[in-house]
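Before going further, learn to read the protein records used in this course. Taken together, the tokens spell out the fold as the letters spell out the chain. A record is reproduced here so that you can trace the correspondence yourselves:

***
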Amino acid sequence: MFYIMIAKITQYRRGPIETVLIAVATFLIGFSLDIHAQSESGDAVKPSSRTVLITGANRGIGLELARQYAADGWRVIGTARKPESAGELNATGANVMQLDVTDQASVDRLAQHLSGQPIDMLINNAGIQPLMWKLDEVDFDEFERALSVNAVGPVRVTRALVPNLRSGKVRKVINITTNLSSIAENTEGGFYGYRESKAALNMFNKSLAMEFGPEGFICIVLNPGWVRTDLGGPKAPLSVEESVSGMRSVIENLSPEDNGSFWTHDGKQMPW
């Protein structure tokens, strides 16, 4: 319609009024096209324009996170210690990259490969669960490995990827923890190595939130619940699909006021 308006106006000799009318019609055409383009592209941060990096993504919760985010249109970077054995992760369409969170050289290679690429969200999921129920059962090598993977690993990875996260639009860091890391809820003891390493992760998250919150980061620890995975075992009440779907809902609805908090997969806050 605006093109017809311009055509009719330009049939006559242009005076000041005609010139103004042409300018107005041209503006309206541009405005209409811009609105149409926005309706086609959606919000400024569409899922298809977002990138999430998930550590320990070759099995269990990490694999399901990769599946669900990829299915929702996110660009997924999934890490595994042995990418050649990550067939299911490859099948999700994720960009599979090698990473051992306990190896600084491996972390540095990942950061170098991703240099200059915005990452909207980092999910520190890689973790291990040593089975040590009593103090005299503690294997100190396993204890130290749990600390290295569960507590120090996320520190290494997050520090390396801060420049990428600063370039992203979402700026969320999600640290996967456990209810067993809650001091307030430890009424049974046991789980040596696992409780301590995840409690340390919680404290790292709190410090991270305090440091980077002013830059618009939202950093939380998130408990997936007791899930039927290799770690959780067959008696766990939650399927991995249920757990991840719940966690994604929590993540999506986070606000700046939630920075530094401790959540469960079903949207409840946990005591420290």
Notes: Helices lie at 2-9, 16-41, 60-71, 87-91, 104-113, 140-167, 194-212, 240-252.
